Amino acid sequence: MSAPAHRDTAPAWWAVGDVTSAAIDFGASNTDVVFRSPDGLRHWTLPTEGQPDLSRVFRALSAGDVTASQCAWLAVTGGNRSALPPVIEGRPVHQVAEVEAIGRGGLALSGLEAAVVASAGSGTAVVRATPDGMRHVTGTGVGGGTLVGLSRLLLGTVDPQEIDALARAGTDTTHNLTIGEILGQAIGSLPPDTTAVNFGRVARHAVDAPREDTAAALVNMVGQVIAIVAINAARAQQLEHAVIVGHLTDLPSVRHTFEMVAQFYGAAIRIPEQGGQATALGALLSGAERFAAAPFTTGTGA
Q: Under a CB-based contact definition with an 8 Å cutoff, are residues 133 and 140 in contact?
């Protein structure tokens, strides 16, 4: 479980919705909860188990010592949220489309008014987020699930923290071929040591690599795919910034890969701290705005 998030300087969205409330993001791998009270904002995470139902709502809230009855309203997003009732313990349930939640949460955490927001969770969804609304524009099946799945096969572990530690101690070029090796020089803005072929060296001949180098190559591949998809989406949408959120950004090795790709391509990528809470936060902001405009007593679909 992540530690509660406390801020000394309140961002612009902090004042939105001062009513005690909670939002739950039912992700494919993690369930995230953001709880707003007069004491501030708290965030915690627990593993996802099955499809959303009442018992999962109660477990998610109780992990932070919160009950539904403490809240004026609840917001839910992700998963098969439509299976949940419109009212839980007398509290209305606001269902938020995941695209809306990703976009709003990404903008809130990044402090931007418009951007492409890539949610790097088990897979990666990319959302155009502007004052005119949120729209899904692209995505990729490559994400945290890819990294963990391949790590099970190649490293014998599914622990993200172990994968990250191994990757930070390793060198990806034990497995990867570089542009310099293929072309003998840089190409465009890409320096010679940029990856040209992921796991290309292994395709040519057997490699006796330690687990650290294999982990580094896996992180390099997954991180590059996500960052390039985000950058290309931002350019296609004619937006200056790409924002990457989701629990994959919890890993320093992945964040470093994102930053290197942005540097190579001269792109503006923001990777907010606590990015794993973005979708739940977006759902909370959506519910707060709706409640402020017209306090509701029954839940309605997004």
A: no
Q: Using CA atoms, how far apart are residues 173 and 175, in angstroms rounded to an integer?
A: 5
Encoding tokens for residue 26? 């039912």
At residue 124, φ and ψ (nearest 5 deg) are -130, 120
User: Each residue of 247-295: pLDDT tens digit?
Assistant: 999 999 999 999 999 999 999 999 999 999 999 999 999 999 877 766 6
Residue owning tokens 């990806």: 172
Residue 141: C-alpha distances to residues 128, 144, 147, 167, 225 (Å) = 18, 9, 11, 21, 10
Query: Residue 165 in contact with residue 248, Cβ under 8 Å?
Result: no
Paired tokens of 53: 């139902």
- Taking a C-beta distance cutoff of 8 angstroms, is the pair 132, 122 a contact? no
Q: What domains are defined for the chain? A: 12-95+277-293 (3.30.420.40), 114-271 (3.30.420.40)
